[in-house]
Amino acid sequence: MAMRGEFSSRIGFILAAAGSAVGLGNIWGFPTQVASNGGAAFVLVYLLLAFVLAYPVLMAELIIGRANRSNMVDALGKISNNMAGRLTGIWGCVTVSLILAFYAIVGGWMLAYFADAGANLIGAQTASQWLLTFSDTRNILFCAGFMMINSFIVLGGVKAGIEKWSVRLMPTLVIIIIALIVYVSFQPGAVEGWSAYLVPDFSRVLDPDLLISAMGQAFFSMSLGVGTMLVYGSYVSKQENLPAIGASVALVDIGVAIIAGMLIIPAMYVALNNGVEIFAADGALIAGDKLIFTVLPALFDTIGSVGLLVGLAFFALMVIAAVTSSISMLEVPVAYLVESRGLIRKKAVWLMTAIIFACSCIIIFNFDVLFSLVISATTQWSQPLLGLVLCIFAGWVWRRDAILAELKSGNPEVESGWFWKIWPWYVRFVCPVVIAVMFVRSVV
């Protein structure tokens, strides 16, 4: 069997794992959730739930991955010693591939809008019109382009691909966000946006819908349940202190979500000040794809020639956020094909790219029926259930002494610390119950 890759540095792992967690959801989902759910009150609940719920599951994935030094299918198979583990692993690989199939379409839109910002800079109006028109041809071409970028990075393996690019892309992402925050904050209307984002409405804190939204956001923004963190964990050196490194990943992810809000919400109020409609018919702030593809481009149009550069920077940011998440998703089935099925990495990458791109094309040709269906099936149904099953594996199936031995390899004193006093029973009793309740609430 070929030598497995390993992250060469702690910062390389933290940036790659945080890159996996920082996706389009952090930038287009989190800010509008905050603004429409009681401002800073939502941020506080989110912070709490990220550490109360998402961090323990993140740790379960990292520990399982590093202990078994293998992909999701083999790792869960080794823990359970039966087919149930392997089947769960395969279910994870299928789910993550389907998530990537719709994510690549959205990533393609980001690329198209980035290209459009470039076309506007050089005054290519015809190209711009084609780029902004929703068509099967455009969607397929840009989805293919987006998948090619991912394949190129994942072909390099862990050190020369994923780590090398994460260490470049993540700081770039943060620099672009901060530069845009500074620019937007000096525009008329920004102050109202800051107050909508930062002033808490504490009457909302115990609202069950707010709690469910915050929990869902915390869970999905850390890309849990589908094996990305498990596979990345399997590439971490045995010398690393896992609870500390996991906390760093959670903090970077939460930090990026919060600074994304400092950009998006003031930008929306600047747009309002410039005559752009930012509220939907029910009075809530416009969120999701409408926010990214309608409200913000309209804002860039209202600020003249600087708007072209701001638009270019913004869509560069969105492409980077999409890529850092997608490479981790592609790595999950690739790792399985390389280690379990004995394919060479190059073959595995191209095979998975072809399969996922074929799924994307099927979604594009049946867009009205399949797009939102695939998103619901994967992120609202499959992902929380996988998170639940991972908690059961970590809490009930896997032997406690094996978990402790794994943690001790990077931190000999772990047994006397807080983490070991709380985490094992927590992931056993609290996480499964909370995830199950959240799942039933969201489905019913």
TrEMBL record:
<feature type="transmembrane region" description="Helical">
    <location>
        <begin position="84"/>
        <end position="106"/>
    </location>
</feature>
<dbReference type="InterPro" id="IPR047218">
    <property type="entry name" value="YocR/YhdH-like"/>
</dbReference>
<feature type="transmembrane region" description="Helical">
    <location>
        <begin position="418"/>
        <end position="440"/>
    </location>
</feature>
<dbReference type="GO" id="GO:0016020">
    <property type="term" value="C:membrane"/>
</dbReference>
<keyword id="KW-0812">Transmembrane</keyword>
<dbReference type="Pfam" id="PF00209">
    <property type="entry name" value="SNF"/>
</dbReference>
<dbReference type="InterPro" id="IPR037272">
    <property type="entry name" value="SNS_sf"/>
</dbReference>
<keyword id="KW-0472">Membrane</keyword>
<feature type="transmembrane region" description="Helical">
    <location>
        <begin position="170"/>
        <end position="190"/>
    </location>
</feature>
<keyword id="KW-0813">Transport</keyword>
<feature type="transmembrane region" description="Helical">
    <location>
        <begin position="39"/>
        <end position="64"/>
    </location>
</feature>
<keyword id="KW-1133">Transmembrane helix</keyword>
<feature type="transmembrane region" description="Helical">
    <location>
        <begin position="139"/>
        <end position="158"/>
    </location>
</feature>
<feature type="transmembrane region" description="Helical">
    <location>
        <begin position="306"/>
        <end position="328"/>
    </location>
</feature>
<feature type="transmembrane region" description="Helical">
    <location>
        <begin position="210"/>
        <end position="232"/>
    </location>
</feature>
<dbReference type="InterPro" id="IPR000175">
    <property type="entry name" value="Na/ntran_symport"/>
</dbReference>
<protein>
    <submittedName>
        <fullName>Sodium-dependent transporter</fullName>
    </submittedName>
</protein>
<feature type="transmembrane region" description="Helical">
    <location>
        <begin position="381"/>
        <end position="398"/>
    </location>
</feature>
<feature type="transmembrane region" description="Helical">
    <location>
        <begin position="244"/>
        <end position="272"/>
    </location>
</feature>
<feature type="transmembrane region" description="Helical">
    <location>
        <begin position="348"/>
        <end position="374"/>
    </location>
</feature>
